[in-house]
Amino acid sequence: MSSLTRVASLVFSVVAIVLAxxxxxxxxxxxxxxALRDAARRNDAAQAGELAARLPNYAIPSYVDYYRLKPRLxxxxxxxxxxxxxxxxxxxIADRLRNDWxxxxxxxxxxxxxxxxxxxxxxxxxxxxKCYALLSKLSRGATVADDARALxxxxxxxxxxxxxxxxxxxxxxxxxxxDVWAQIRLAAENGQAAxxxxxxxxxxxxxxxxxLAIEHPVVFVARGVGSxxxxxxxxxxxxxxxxxxxxxxxxxxxxxxxEDKLSAKEQAxxxxxxxxxxxxxxxxxxxxxxxRAQGAPLSPEGQQWKVRIALRNEDWxxxxxxxEAMPEALRNDPAWVYWRGRALQAAGKxxxxxxxxxxxxxxxxxxxxxxxxxxAQKISIPQAAxxxxxxxxxxxxxxxxxxxxxKFFAMDxxxxxxxxxxxxxxxxxxxxxxxxxxEFARQNNVLDRMVNSADRTRSEHDFxxxxxxPFRDVMYRxxxxxxxxxxxxxxxxxxxxxxxxxxxxxVGASGLMQLMPATARLVAxxxxxxxxxxxxxxxxxxxxxxxxxxxxxxxxxxDGSQALAxxxxxxxxxxxxxxxxxxxxxxxxxxxxxTIPFSETRGYVKNVLSNATYYAALFExxxxxxxxxxxxxTPKGMVQTxxx
Length: 644
Known about the structure:
2 strands
């Protein structure tokens, strides 16, 4: 079958599914629906009501009714909301409305209705709903301080609910000043000045002083430590913010002008603030400052970066102690399971290490692959599952939620489409259903959902679904002409766009290889594409040609290191050069990846190289080594080698 025939067949499949919805509609109804969606997002209840009335027989009535009701949620009666939830019970959009209603009930402190609805909320991923749930328990006299400490780790998501929870815990005597100052430091660490200011009076602090410490930390630190606990704590907050600009100057301020005015505990807190910011800069003094922070309570970021700096120095004793000091949930993350195994192995505790490796080696990700190699095995493709049967596929095709998802994808409403698709995945009970959903997605050319569905299996696998190779003829020609590793390029595309041809990021990157406009123009000029126009960036051939050439340029510039070049593709070439410049000796690629300061780039490098390892195993038909692909990362001027 030719490429053109395959594309025509896929387009026909999408059209057929959309036409199979209860009622076929003209494009005009879709336009009205889009306007209704926009009106609801603006909370324009009058326009939403008028537009909804023009869609009495729309193919997806649950969304018409949702967008009609959502702008009126504050004033709608409980009976009206319950009627909607009953009519569309078991659907993704009903759970979304229940989420919206729970937030409204929490704001109104209608705990009876809140408590009745909360057990019915399936997704339950809203931080504010969780804070309201603890407020409800607190209102009945329950002790919730430990649950609150475990929950309150991401101030960007707090909103009214979580800030009110902290206030209520203080009022109930379940949070003390230590808890509140920990929250203020966490807010400052995350750049949430408004949250820090609001919490300050709960611990005897001054709202304006805390704001000054966060927004003008160098000035605040220069004034020195004031008297009283609140002033000392505010000074520690300012130290952390000042260290973001210059860890060295903050360290000098603490050691020369403030240490004698602070208790041992306060000094440790100050050093922890400085050490974290120094870690983000990969400063050589970070390890020393973490040592001085011994005993200070650390945020989750602090706990992890303390270990990452020890890793960078191959201080395996500190790696082990740092991981073992983490809360259980964090300690059991595959990253820290793997690195704890390495630390135990370095201490000669080989069987304990192997036990940890075995616990994650069956997981198909970066750390599962590394653990597999520590067990003296290579990365291979598992035996393929029995192909999906016609009956299994027919059952999937009849799934109303997946059909709604396809309708949304056809309208380029990816947010709604993904919500519907993932909701149905949540309710599937067998791996065969996941494989059938992945095949259904493949047949309808929704490759990101194919990957998402196939990735969920644990015992039956189809790696052709997990690691697709669309446009392989174009990719082969392009990579061959450049002498590039096609597995690596596919691994990068899988991470960048999940093969969504018209994907566009929040910063304006476009297409399969997510090219920024300036990068696309630069590369087009360098490779002699004189007639390039940015409208071409979503053309498959052009996107792959530009993206692959750019990747090859940064690979050459960074001495052939896929780890460095992958980081450069995500964060720009200047940043990995800067991170590399802080090295004093060669480090293994896995340690370099683990200690990338940008969380997005850190995850990106791991995922791309993990993907590439599986693609190579598929292409070559033989086991592969992720460690060899990671290689080692050296200071500039030293020879790059592979990790054996």
